[in-house]
Specification:
mainly alpha; three-stranded antiparallel sheet; two-stranded antiparallel ribbon; 14 helices; 5 strands
Length: 314
């Protein structure tokens, strides 16, 4: 196979892959969870007697605590996956010839490393990763209106990437522990409050782990607040030894609201949507084309702006 044949095959397979996507799914899922949470008492009316904890006579506390927390964990997972989908595309689409090999077989550790090391302060780097043309933002064009549109969109991309990276680092432990099932606390400290929390769309999500402080700082960016959930006499005298052998049960809580998770998913979709449009545009481009059109994001994730540039042979 020649390089030209491989590139042609890569472009074709990329378009087949793209045509089968529903990129709004993460947003749809979080909005579905939000709707369930806002109508939980009605939604679970016929299920709460089956799903209730043994010490919950009516099932109302279970719905308002354990199930609420579980649904918020699931919404969190959707927001994290939305971020990883975007960064995976940026990382793995530099060579369209090998698009399928790089993107379809997902390497989570490599994507996470890419997110941790992403230079969101370097606009030229950002534009390269987004496969967009870079122009200095302090050198206005002759067409001032188009330049301001370009500048506004570039700064929006940077702002969204910054916020997504912060979110991903903040909730990395919560997401990882949720994926593995048994390391989350849907009933924090084992005793749900007597009063039912009426705000079903916000909660403190609690996870367990046993990482040492040094390992946690290295893996999670040092942003986590560690606590020992039960400082019992059986462990009080050997905390240091348990910690050093990664055998000390610790917990962390992060308060989040469903709208915060939805906003992150919408940011990720906004950038991923224009990223895909630009990839498709590249695949459709012909040698004789004189201009290249590029898609740039707007705050309304349903919208975008198209800017045309003279085509450079390089």
């Amino acid at each position: 196979m020649t390089d030209k044949e491989r590139l042609r095959a890569g472009k074709y397979q990329l378009q087949i892959y793209s045509a089968n996507q529903y990129r709004l799914w993460r947003i749809a899922m979080i909005k579905t969870i939000k709707h369930i949470l806002e109508n939980a008492d009605v939604f679970y009316m016929d299920l709460k007697s089956e799903l209730r904890q043994s010490d919950d006579e009516t099932g109302d506390k279970t719905i308002h605590h354990e199930i609420r927390n579980g649904l918020l964990f699931e919404a969190l997972a959707q927001s994290m996956q939305a971020i990883e989908e975007l960064f995976s595309m940026m990382k793995n689409t530099a060579d369209i010839s090998y698009f399928i090999r790089s993107v379809v077989i997902y390497n989570a550790s490599e994507v996470n490393k890419y997110i941790r090391n992403f230079d969101a302060e370097n606009i030229e780097y950002i534009m390269e990763q987004m496969r967009l043309l870079y122009f200095p933002l302090d050198e206005p064009w002759e067409n001032a209106e188009v330049f301001e549109t370009y500048k506004m969109s570039v700064l929006l991309i940077q702002d969204y990437l910054r916020k997504m990276i912060i979110h991903h680092k903040r909730f990395a432990l919560h997401y990882n522990q949720y994926k593995h099932g048994q390391a989350i606390a849907l009933r924090p400290f084992a005793n749900p409050p007597e009063n039912i929390n009426e705000d079903m769309t916000e909660s403190g999500l609690m996870v367990f782990d046993s990482y040492s402080v040094d390992k946690k700082t290295k893996r999670m960016g040092g942003n986590q607040n560690m606590m020992i959930p039960h400082l019992h006499p059986d462990i009080a005298g050997c905390i240091r030894a348990l910690h050093d052998e990664n055998n000390l049960l610790t917990a962390e809580i992060e308060v989040t609201h469903i709208d915060e998770l939805l906003e992150i998913a919408e940011m990720a979709f906004t950038l991923l949507n224009v990223f895909w449009k630009n990839l498709k545009n590249y695949c459709d481009m012909k040698d004789e084309d004189k201009f290249i059109e590029q898609f740039f994001p707007l705050k309304d994730y349903h919208s975008f702006v198209v800017i045309g540039f003279p085509k450079d042979d390089n």
